[in-house]
């Protein structure tokens, strides 16, 4: 064998060894890189509690404190319909040509937390309809519901409008509201008339002359509060002039129908409410 052939064979051998060493190292390097990535993912699980705070600060003015819509659309069920990634993208980048702005100040983690908060409303759509909608409509009319609630422009304005309630709540949620109307009402959000969803928190105000006013908060600042009573009358109160002002969470101007209606009647009323889905 010539000296040139020996050198050539040695070079080929060294190249083969180097290639083998490189191939054997790639899986280890990939595994080492994958481990921190998995750890980072574990640390970034979405937080619905943090998302709730972010939603109230950035989104509630348009979508309502409970995300069921105000100037902006109802967001219940949106993550399930579009997927979490799509909603995160909308939060961060907005929707061109619409009133939905971009929130570049929110990180992907922040947006994911907001989506996690929106996911907490999905149980509101649970349950099945078992009653008779026609009978339920008659119960709605005979029970005086229209004196407080509005449907398609007809009715009162003390309680929330029900024109789209069938798209916003499920049968189980509506059953719970009929039995215990004051449970789980939105309590956050301040600022004068900042959001209609702040108004359902009850307050008891006592004026210096002892006169008591019970009503739902419509707006509030550091020095004043506006309450709406059961008749729909507004009371603008200057806080320094009050003897006391107390929140009454768990209370509602809406009466409980636990004893006023039988379970079958409540099923019929829920069946009627579930037909109210607004313009299709």
Give a description of the structure:
This protein has 280 residues and is of the alpha+beta class. The chain has three domains: 48-122, Cytochrome c-like domain (Cytochrome Bc1 Complex, Chain D, domain 2); 126-181 and 254-273, Cytochrome Bc1 Complex, Chain D, domain 2, CATH 1.10.760.10; 196-247, SH3 type barrels, CATH 2.30.30.100. It has helices at residues 3-43, 48-58, 60-63, 78-82, 84-93, 108-119, 133-142, 165-168, 171-179, 263-273, and strands spanning 150-151, 154-155, 202-207, 212-220, 224-228, 234-238, 242-247. The protein has a five-stranded antiparallel β-sheet with strand order 6-5-4-3-7, with no helix packed on it. Strands 1-2 form a two-stranded antiparallel sheet. β1 (150-151) and β2 form a beta hairpin. It is globular, with a radius of gyration of 29 Å.
């Amino acid at each position: 064998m010539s000296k040139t052939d020996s050198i050539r064979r040695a070079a080929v051998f060294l190249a083969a060894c180097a290639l083998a060493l490189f191939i054997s190292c790639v899986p280890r390097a990939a595994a080492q890189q994958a481990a921190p990535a998995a750890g980072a993912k574990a640390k970034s699980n979405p937080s619905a509690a943090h998302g709730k705070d972010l939603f109230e600060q950035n989104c509630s003015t348009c979508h309502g404190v409970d995300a069921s819509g105000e100037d902006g659309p109802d967001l219940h069920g949106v993550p399930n319909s579009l997927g979490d990634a799509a909603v995160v993208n909308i939060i961060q980048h907005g929707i061109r040509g619409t009133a939905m702005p971009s929130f570049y100040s929110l990180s992907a983690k922040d947006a994911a937390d907001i989506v996690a908060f929106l996911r907490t409303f999905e149980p509101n759509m649970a349950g099945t309809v078992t009653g008779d909608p026609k009978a339920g409509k008659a119960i709605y009319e005979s029970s005086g519901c229209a004196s407080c609630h509005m449907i398609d422009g007809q009715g009162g304005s003390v309680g929330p409008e029900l024109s789209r309630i069938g798209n916003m709540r499920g049968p189980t949620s509506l059953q719970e509201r009929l039995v215990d109307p004051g449970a789980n009402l939105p309590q956050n959000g301040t600022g004068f008339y900042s959001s209609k969803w702040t108004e359902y928190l009850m307050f008891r105000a006592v004026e210096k002359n002892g006169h008591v006013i019970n009503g739902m908060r419509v707006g509030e600042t550091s020095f004043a509060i506006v309450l709406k009573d059961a008749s729909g009358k507004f009371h603008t109160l200057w806080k320094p002039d009050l003897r006391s002002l107390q929140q009454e969470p768990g209370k509602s101007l809406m009466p409980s129908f636990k004893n006023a209606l039988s379970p079958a009647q409540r099923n019929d009323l829920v069946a009627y409410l579930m037909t109210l889905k607004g313009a299709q």
